[in-house]
Amino acid sequence: MKIHLQHNSINARIKLPASKSISNRALILNALSYSPYPIGNVSDCDDTSVMIKALDSNDRLFDVGAAGTSMRFLTAFLSKTLGEWVITGSERMKQRPIRILVDALNQLGAKIEYLEKEGFPPLKITGSALMGGEIKLNGGVSSQYISALMMIAPYMYKGLTIQLEGKVISQPYIRMTQAMMNEFGVDSTFVDNSIRIPAQEYTPVPFTVESDWSAASYWYELLAIAGKGEVFLEGLRKNSYQGDAQVANLFAQLGVATEYYTDGVKLSPSETATSQLSYNFINEPDLAQTLAVCCCIKGIPFSFSGLQSLKIKETDRINALINELAKLGYCISEPAEGELEWTGATCAKADVPVIKTYEDHRMAMAFAPAALVGELEIEHPEVVSKSYPDFWQDLQTIS
Known about the structure:
Largest sheet: 4 strands, mixed
Distance between the termini: 20 Å
CATH topology of the largest domain: UDP-n-acetylglucosamine1-carboxyvinyl-transferase, Chain
Number of strands: 20
Number of helices: 12
CATH architecture of the largest domain: Alpha-beta prism
CATH superfamily of the largest domain: Enolpyruvate transferase domain
Shape: globular
Number of domains: 2
Strand order of the largest sheet: 2-13-15-14
Strand content: 15-25%
Helix content: 25-40%
């Protein structure tokens, strides 16, 4: 799909998609609490649709496609659900490691086997009551493993204590899970890298999902590049569960101001823009692609760290960024594991860059704003359905 956004300013009012992270947790918590209430404003993205279909299904085989969150959350959920299950996914999903979660569950009393390659989906799960107890996990693993274990912990016979070792990444997602569990009536503590969840029961509650701050990042990027206009994003909350609400503070350094209202936020250009950006994305790795593309286009050298988890996302996002930004004429590098850097170095730009998306929704959306400075082509634009199905339609509404 070729796009060229011929706009001197960006003016739009956007109803953002509901948060995928909150939706998927809310669906699991709703199921665990045997709630009669439907989840309000649940996301309509691929990942959440997979979760809804699985939770509403009587099948014994679950194919989650490319939905990593669903793979991890459902593996834990099914391990405590009486029955025999098989869970599989796309070819890329079969390359995404799950051993850490499976080992932890098996240690707590689950019965999970690998059906193909050791350490990777597909899995055979024999669901039963879990004993629970205490486990140790590397704090540098995906927070989705930790959240998956946390959500089923109240129904373990001994409850669960997770001792996180080393540096803990993506803490806001763990805190999100803890806060949402609390909203469903479960008490827990998270102190000094130790998460303790006693055996107890969930309470059914009505729950409405807030809009997605990760999706908001692409609109911040559009306005930062254009430098003129005004964008109102509906459904965002200042006091959000989402760590990616940090995007407002990050883009304050790139020339975008944020005003908070009861029904959303208003973005407008500001005169303040840094000459160089250094940031540790350990808590907000999903924002890295947006910031990398934006900084390059605005000519702002950067040094990013805390990106270890990007290699096990939908694709290896670090290599994907290096490859695709080169097509736009920007030579970025990985000076060390989990880091990205741009010194301002340039290389030959393609006449009409063809951006590969690598089956990764965030690659498509992070690169789309680059069309403000020249025509480009996005391969497989449909990948946005994973988190923001209406992205291309929303992009057409800017004036």
